[in-house]
Every structure is written in structure tokens, then in C-alpha cells.
Amino acid sequence: MRASHYYAPTLRKAPSDAELPSHQLLMRGGFIRPVAAGVFDWLPLGLRVLRKVENVVREEMNSAGSIEVHLPVLAPKDLWERSGRWDTFEPTPFRTKDRGDREFCLGPTHEEVMTHLVAVDLSSYRDLPLTLYQIQVKFRDEVRPRGGLLRVKEFFMKDAYSFDVDREGLDKSYQAQYDAYVRILDRLSLPAFIVKADAGSMGGSDTREFHVLTEYGEDTIFRCNKCDYAANAECAALSPVEAGPRKADGEPELVETPGQSTIEQVCEFLGRPAEQLAKTLIYKVDGEFIAAIVRGDRDLNDFKLRNLLGAESLEMASPADILKVTGASVGFSGPVGLAESVKIIADYEVNAMSDFVVGANKDDAHLVGVEVERDFSVAQFADIREAVLGDGCPECCDGELVTERGIEMGHVFKLGTKYAEALGATFLDESGTEQVATMGCYGFGVSRAIAGIVEVHHDKDGIIWPMSVAPFHVGVLLLDPGVEELAQIADQLETGLGEAGYEVMVDDRDERPGVKFKDADLIGYPIQIVVGKRTAENGTVEVRRREDKAESVVREEADGDGK
Ligand SMILES: [Zn+2]
Predict the structure, then answer these.
(1) Residue 394 alpha carbon to ligand 1 centre in Å
(2) CA within 20 to 30 Å of 94's CA: 133, 330, 387, 467, which one?
């Protein structure tokens, strides 16, 4: 390929809104261009990288026994209503209507459409196991697109769905995908960090996320500093706390706290640290009210509470509901004297508290000197708070949790039978009884992986592509294209290296050498070959490795093997 006839416009400066290295360098190197916030054009260099990442993913999917299909972007409302996600999926998918007023969404994920496909033809247990995948454009109506290819409205994903006769079969299909992900990330030179995750709106159980750790990662990951436990912030588990000594006699004292409704205000007003306060939060769970208590300096974790209660819906109670349930305004709720119908769930740490402060269920008042058991009873102590730096490891019980920043590259979920049931993916088992297929789903961010690779592989001068996905393997810098003899040598290099299986870009543009060196580093060819003055003098070329800028001088004739 000749740069003079190619389309790879580079930029000296990154756009001012690009904060992440990957965003800056992919823009500067001429890989992508924005059309609107979170919507990008793929330029030729970017498209070459994208196709290579796709192929790595495709090869590993195929070798894991999954089979490629291609599903439509337009997903009919009817399928999404059957799964119950038309109104609940977050963020709300892009929606559109055809001329006959039939509604569709632009698929943010394809559980419904894939399950529908399989349901049509599935009849016998002999048809299973089956894992289908596609590499497809996906849409997500991001509230705040940012980070170049990281948070976008339109992106490329590989999504696979497995169908098995039972849970055991699912375990095998899941493991095959898990192993394929490890190989994909290895081939993309992405050091993976595998963490436990919450299934969120996908509604699964056993799930893992594959993260790449970088300082610009948008997810917080907790990992143990002693063992290999790792989990995302939503589901980092915390261990039970032993009950502390409690006073059995006496009673709490009612203290006026006019207008002091936040934890900070109450702490300052009473001269007590937040650890001596208990926050009581009233939630509406599947139509019933519950009180959830955490220490004043902690945050409640909605995901944990929802999972603990096995709740379909969970939301903070409205101020009007809080008034109805507690008899007081927001900020004055407490567990003492609450109606018996309101179940009290307390975080493990509350079990160790004594002589603490709670809201009095009366405006402008708190109770001081409160004791668990003596003053109120807890239905269950559980892990319902957000993990923080320094929490104990739930696995080895010896280490402490430390935090990292990660970018999620992929995830594997055990879905169970939810979608298969909703969309009728059933089969007859060996005894002729109708059974529902057991599903797993497996996503991998193809365009996102490109951002991940650049985050991990770059320096101040530009991108350092791994060979496996480089847009071209070799950049031949023809410093003086006007000299016929040098142009011929560049020709020979292109042909010889091409025959040896290397993809070569010859920079024959009418530009200064400095520009060519800068662009080659920015674009990130793993190998650069300089054809210049020295070549004319003594027939040698300079070979530079982008990774470490190691240079070697090679006689031109010896170049056919690429080194
Ligand atoms: Zn540990």
C-alpha cells in the first residue's frame, strides 16, 4: 500500500474534548472521526484494526464450537414485551416505528431475537447443546457518551448465546466461552483481570467480567491484596461481623435536633462521629416497605439488597411514603418503634454497634444511646453496604480489599431459563417430556477492545499496535521518493515482505522526513524500515521496532524474511 494513495489523515493535536489516551491517539492517528457525540466514522486504518479484532474473536468463537449467524438490528417490540424488557431495559433502547406504526428497537443486545430464532426450530434434546454468536453493530442511548470508543451510542460487539438441556450442560458451554475469552484477550495482548459481577438487567446468576486495568478505567474493581479474589464494586462481598457488647438495661434518650436531617448535620450537632450513627433507609420492595440500616459513614448497595431479598423491583420510598411509614420527614427515620409490618434488614456492621444514634421517627428529633435487641429487633443481618478500600477479603479472610480502575472488555453470564421460557425455546427430552432450554450469554466489546489495546499499548509518541491487530505490520519510510533507486528498493521491500506474509505501508508522500517519522510512530506500525540517505550510500536500511525503538541496520538484500 502506498501512503500517497491512501486515506489516513493524521492530526498534530488531539481534539480538546479527548481526555483518554486511546481517544486522543485514535483520533490523531486517523483511525476514527466523530459524526456526533458517541457516534464515529471508521477510517481505513481503523477499519483494518476492527476487522482484525473481529477475526481473532471469530476464530476463537469457532474453535470453542460456537456457530456464527447474523441477526437484524431492528428488533420487534413484541419479542421485547414477551421478555418483559421493553419498558424496563436501561438505558431505554433507541426506538423506531415503521410506516404501519409497528414498533421496533435498535438492538442493544439480542437475547430476545436469538432465543426467538432458536425457539422456531428447536424440537429435541438431540438439537442441543447449541451456541450461536454474531458480530454485530449495537446501539445504546448513552446519557453521556465519552471516552472515544468506550462509551458510545453505536458500537461493535460479539454476542454469543448458549442453549443446553440442563444446568450441567450450561456449565460446560459457559466454560468453553470463558476459556475462549482468555485466549482472545491473550491474542489481543490485553492483560485480563477476571472479576465477579452482578448480572444487573440481564437477569443471570453466575457471571464474570473480563477487565483491562488502566488508570482511566471507568469501573472500580476490588481485589484482595493477599489472594486472587476480585469483584466489581457492585458485588464485592463483605464478611459478617461479630456482635459487640450491648447494654441490656436503660433506654434511648430523645434529643431535639431541629432541622438536622443529614448525617453530617447530625454528627456535628451531637458531636458524634458518623460511625456512631445508624442510617435508616426506607425502601419499597415489590410493593412492601422495608427498613435497611447501615452505619452512618457507609453507603447502602442497592444491588446487594435486591439480591438478598430476591426482589423484582426495589426503590427508595417517596417522602410521602416515608411520612406514612415512619410518621416523620425524610432524614428522621429510625428502627425504634417502627410498625411491625416493616421488616428491618441491617448491615453486618450494625451488629457490632452499641450506644448509637438513630432517627426518632419524629420530625427534628433523634434517639441517642440506642442498642440493638433492647430497643428494636433486626429480621436479618446481611451484607448490604458498598465495599470500601481496606475492607476485609471475604475469600481468604486475611487480606484487605484494594481498588483498581478497569475497562470491561467482555462478560459471561449464566442466564438460566428466563428468556427460553418467555420466548418458548423448549424441547422434548429423552422421555418425551417438554423441557425449557437453559441459556448462557456471552458478550465481547469488539470496538471497545480497540480502545483497551491502545490504553495499554501506547507511549507519548503514539500507538504501539501488537502484531496481531496492527493496521499494517511494517511501515516503510521512503524518505526521498524522488530518488528512483530508493523508490525501487522500497518496491522490492514491499513485494518481498508481502510475499513473506507481512502487510506493508510505504510512506512515499511528498513530506519531510520528520513528518514521516512522527506519523509512523503515531499510527504505530510495529516495525518501521527507513529507506534513506544511508541506503543510497551503502545499501543498508534501518529497521526500528516501535515497541522499544530498538534499531538495527540491515543490508537491503537480506530483507526478504522481514527482519
Ligand atoms: Zn483474600
Answers:
(1) 7
(2) 133
Q: How far is the CA of 402 from the centre of ligand 1 (A)?
A: 10
Q: Is the pLDDT of residue 224 over 80?
A: yes
Q: Parallel, antiparallel, or unpaired for β 343-347 and 288-295?
A: parallel
Distance of CA 127 to the CA centre of its chain: 33
Q: Which residues contact 151 (CB under 8 A, 6 or more apart)?
A: 38, 142, 144, 145, 218
Indicate the pTM of the whole model: 0.84
Helix crossing, 446-456 with 21-28: angle to 10°? Answer: 100
Q: From the CA of 456, how far away is ligand 1's center (Å)?
A: 26
CA of 426 to the centre of ligand 1 (A): 42
CA 211 / ligand 1 centre spacing (Å): 19
CATH superfamily assigned to domain 253-382? YbaK/aminoacyl-tRNA synthetase-associated domain (3.90.960.10)
Instruction: Quote the ligand 1 centre to 401 CA distance (angstroms).
Output: 8
What is the whole-number distance in angstroms between the Cα of residue 384 and the centre of ligand 1? 19
Helix (H) or strand (E) segment spanning residue 264: helix 263-270
CA dist., res. 93 & res. 90, Å (int):
7
Angle, helices 44-63 vs 167-187, to 10°: value is 140
Answer whether residue 197 shows pLDDT above 90.
no
Q: CB of 115 within 8 A of CB of 418?
A: no
* DSSP, res 300: B
Closest CA to 378 of 416, 412, 352, 417: 352
Whole-number Å distance, alpha carbon 375 to ligand 1 midpoint, is 36
Name the band, by pLDDT with cuts 50, 70 and 90, for residue 217: confident
Burial class of residue 230, CB neighbours in 10 A (0-12, 13-18, 19+): buried
CATH 1.10.1040.10 corresponds to the domain 472-561 = no
- Residue ranges per domain, the chain? 18-236+403-454, 253-382, 472-561
Cell numbers representing residue 503 in the block: 502487510
- Residue range 18-64, pLDDT digits in tens: 989 999 999 999 999 999 999 999 999 999 999 999 999 999 999 99
Q: Is residue 207's pLDDT more than 90?
A: no
C-alpha cell at 33: 472521526
339-358 burial code (b ≥16 CB/10 A, e <16): eeebbbbbbbbbbbbeebbb
Q: Average pLDDT, stretch 408-430?
A: 95
Tell me the CATH number for domain 18-236+403-454.
3.30.930.10
How far apart, in whole angstroms, are the C-alpha atoms of residue 81 and residue 96?
15
Ligand 1 center–CA 170 separation, angstroms: 28
Query: Taking a C-beta distance cutoff of 8 angstroms, is the pair 322, 282 a contact?
Result: yes
Q: 297: helix, coil or strand?
A: coil
Q: Is residue 143 very low, low, confident or very high in pLDDT (cuts 50, 70, 90)? A: confident
Supply the mean pLDDT for the chain.
93
